Amino acid sequence: MGSTSDLRNGLVIKYNNELHVVIKSEHRTPGNLRAFYQVKMKNIKNGKMIENRFRSGEEIDIVRLETKVFQYLYHDGSGFVFMNTETYDQVSIMDESVGDQSRFMKEGESVQIAFDGETPITVEIPPHVNLKVIEAPPGIKGDTATGGSKQVKVETGATINAPMFINENDIIKVDTRTGDYLERVKK
Questions:
Q1: Are 66 and 34 in contact (CB under 8 A)?
Q2: What is the pTM assigned to this prediction?
Q3: Cβ distance 160 to 181 under 8 Å?
Q4: Given a cut of 70, is residue 143 above it in pLDDT?
Q5: Backbone angles phi, psi at 96, to 5 degrees
Q6: Would you kindly state where each structural domain of the chain is located, as residue ranges?
Q7: CA torsion 74→75→80→81, rounded to 10°?
Q8: What is the CATH architecture of 128-185?
Q9: Cα–Cα–Cα angle for 56, 57, 60, nearest 5°?
Q10: For 66-124, CATH number?
Q11: Each residue of 150-182: pLDDT tens digit?
């Protein structure tokens, strides 16, 4: 247990029996009222943002998460299978826990998994990945006056908006947080 004075950005706390990460914490002391902490939190499981007001000195349940590096192996139909790179132990994580970022995971990629005891809580992939383009419609010269873009399909099955000059078998760098094209990678 900790107190509200321990609140800081990135801290994981248990609130209403669910894990939340603190996004913003502000200590306020209004003139004739008692001091309090206004806290903006994000639910780890469903991603919803909430705000709460804690009294100054109130006890909060701080959760210590352990982060380990794992390697993505494959998807077995019911979830994603990862292997610990140190102990070679395997763990299967449900599709919902991995979320939308699974569109950019390719086999053999390293990811970080945060655990609460033995329970996997979050999977975090690198912010940028290099992916091979497997489908790209041809860009016609003079098609647009200002560069333009087209939709290309990458090796993980995701569809990304990319510039007209991207062709099949090109390798592109993609921002996994937004799904945006960043640049073409030189071979």
A1: no
A2: 0.72
A3: yes
A4: no
A5: -65, -35
A6: 2-62, 66-124, 128-185
A7: -40
A8: Beta Barrel (2.40)
A9: 105
A10: 2.40.50.140
A11: 889 999 889 999 888 888 999 999 998 888 999
